[in-house]
Structure prediction request, 263 residues.
Amino acid sequence: LPNKKFHPEPSVVKVGNVLIGGDQLVIMSGPCAVESKKQVLETAHAIKKAGASILRGGAYKPRTSPYAFQGLEEEGLRYMKEAREETGLPVVCEVTSLEAIESAIKYVDMLQIGARNMQNFYLLKEAGKTGLPVLLKRGLSATIEEWLNASEYIMSQGNPNVVLCERGIRTFETATRNTLDISAVPVIKEKSHLPIIVDPSHATGVRSYVKPLAMSAVAAGADGLMIETHPNPAIALSDGPQSLTFPQFETLCEELRPLAQLF
Ligand code: PEP
Ligand code: MN
Prediction:
């Protein structure tokens, strides 16, 4: 079903009033983790003003260490919904379990399946059943074929609204957190009709590399970007080192404008 032979034209996925896969570049932005109501509302207003059209923020955080901040869970989802009500931005949140899906469907416009759950086939099917658009991140060590098969688990439930997200893969390189596989963009465009966005924040783990890779993703033909932002990255509860400040995010959006029309 993700294969182009079933659907020769590129698919356009609707998230709230935002179209992903059309001729406009969609920028999703927000904090790694929802930390407080104030943080989320402040971020939503700032990213909207800069040019983003979807708010991201994790309420269930699949952290590498069990002792790291795990997320505000349903309270976090509630803040995201309040941010949508205040700004009109649709919201996307990661779900890590069936319970998280059951809560999230009351609050969000799009479900995110994270890299660590890309092959959690049970979770993929449950996300598919909701009918909500699903943002499917590429697994840390997943081939493009495995990633497309994962999308098929969602689509096999009668849900065609899948957006792929390249977020870097494991390689021998240690200078960056992961290695952005920019070639995934043209490869996916050749094999599949699904929209693909790129997340240079998780791909690099380093704030100063986010802008050049965001630019290269757009040049390669990505339909959108996911960029982590925080009011004060120095005190972020997760992924501070890769998060942009609001002025940095604004500059990035300004520099993207000559390359693409923002949604
Ligand atoms: C995230 O988007 O916050 C996240 C945890 O990303 P990934 O699943 O790509 O590591
Ligand atoms: Mn993060």
About this structure: DSSP finds nine helices and ten strands in the chain. The chain has one domain: 4-256. The pocket of manganese (II) ion (ligand 2) is lined by residues 32, 202, 228, 238-239 (CB under 6 Å). The mean pLDDT is 98.
